[in-house]
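Discussion board: Methods & Data

I've been asked by a reviewer to show the raw model output for two of the constructs in my manuscript, not just the figures. I'm not sure how much to include, so I'm pasting the format here to get opinions. Each protein appears as its amino acid sequence followed by a line of C-alpha cells. Is this the kind of thing reviewers expect to see in a supplement, or should I convert it first? Here is construct A:
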Amino acid sequence: MVLLALPGLPGCGGGPTIRLADGQRATDGGRVDVSAATTTVVELVEYAFRPAVLTGRPGQRLTLTLSNQGNALHDFRLASQHLDVNAEQAVPVSVTVTFPASGAVTFECRYHLLQHMRGELVAGPG
C-alpha cells in the first residue's frame, strides 16, 4: 500500500496549508489582526505558527512573544529583518518585528521548512 500526502490536505506536515503572498505554502495556524496591538503571543507547535498570518499597519512595530508549545526545538527566522532566534519548549522569547510598508514578509522555522512551518506579516490599510 502506498500513502501520499497531497498539498493543502492534513498530513504529517502539521495540517492543512495556505498559500502565502510570496507563493510558498504554510501550515494554516490561523490569522489575526494586530493593528491595534503593541504585543502579541505567537505559539510554535508541530508544525505551525499560531497564528500564522498577522495583519498590521504599514510600518507598525510589534513585539512577539514566541511560546514553543511543541516537543521539538523551533526557530523564528525573519531574514529581511535579520532575526533568527531559537524557541525552546517552556522558554518564551521576545522579538520585535516591523510590518512592511506594503505587501507581506514571510517568517519561518528553519528546522521545519519541509513541514511548511511558515507565516507572514501582512501590511493592511494604514
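Construct B, same format:
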Amino acid sequence: MDDVRAFIDAAQAFFDAVASVAWAPLMLAILLHVVRLSLRVRGWQNILRAALPGSRVPYQVVFGSYVAGVGVNSILPARGGDVVKIYLAKHRLKDASYPALVSTLVVETLFDFVVASVLFVYALSLGLLPGVPDLPNGLAFDWSFVVEHPRLSLFLGCVLLGLVIALVTWASRRITEFREKLVRGFSILQDRRAYLRDVVSWQAASWVARGLCIYCFLLAFHIDAGFQTVIAVLVVQGISTVLPFTPGGAGTQQAVLVFALRGTASASAVLAFSVGMQLVTVAVNVVLGFAAIAIMLRTLHVHKQIFAARDDLATESAAAPSRSALPGRRASG
C-alpha cells in the first residue's frame, strides 16, 4: 500500500502545480519521448532482420508491435505488454516464430543492462541514491522486501534461475526445433560489428534522447536540470521497473526520486515533476500503443490477444517434438 499512497500524494502535488508548468519544454519532452521510441524500434528491427534472413521486416510493423507492447506495459504490471508485442510481430512477419521473437527481446535489452548498471554505480558513488542499509526506509514494497530479506530473496532468485536452467535443458533435449528457433533470435550477436553498428548505435542514440527528454521535463516543472539530476532520474526510472509489481513502477519512482533529488527541489516539487512526467509518458504510450493495436488487429480487446499469444506459444512448443521427429523434415522459421 505504500507505493499506492506515494503515487496518490504525488498526483495531488502534480495537480496543485499544473498551472505553473512550462508548456514549451513539456511539448519538446513529449516529442523526444516519441523519438526515443522510434530509435529503439530501429534497433529491434535490425535484430529481427538478422533473425529472419530473407524475410521482409517493415519498419511500420515493428513500430506498431513495439509501441503496442509499450502501451500495454504502461497500464499492466509484470510486463504483460511484451506478450502483445510478440503476438503482433508473429502475425505480421513472415517466417517469424514465438521462440525467435522472445530471444530477440532478450538481445534488445543487453546494451540497456550495461548502460543502466554503469549509471547505477555512478549514481551510488555520488550519493544520489540511498545506500543498501537505507533502502527499506520509506521506499515501496517492491524494493524494501528484497533489501530487508536478502537471504530469502537470494534463495528465491536461485530457485528461479534453477528453474530457468532446467527448462532450457529440457527444451534442448526434447524440443530440437524449438531450440533452433530460439537461437535464431541471437543471430546478430554472431557478428560483433553488425551488432554495434545496427543495434548499439541506435540504442545509444535512444539513451541520449531519453536524457534530453528528462531534461525538458525537469525544465517544464521548474527543477534545476543539471547533469547529475538527469542521471539520478535515469537511474531511478530504470531500477524502479526491475520488479514491475506496479505499472511503470508507479509509487516506487516517486518515493526514490524524493531522496535522489533532495537538496535540488522541495519534496512537493519533486513529486509534482515525477508524477507529471509519468502521467504524460503513460498517456503518450497508451495513445500510440492502442492506436497500433486498433490498426493492426482492428480490435482493442488486449486481454484476448494476450491469451491467444499464450495459447499459440504453448501449441507451437508442444508440436515441436512431433515435427522434428519426422524424417527429412526441415525446421521452419
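Answer (T.O., handling editor elsewhere):
This is acceptable in a supplement if you add a one-line summary per construct. For B, something like: The chain has one domain: 2-321.
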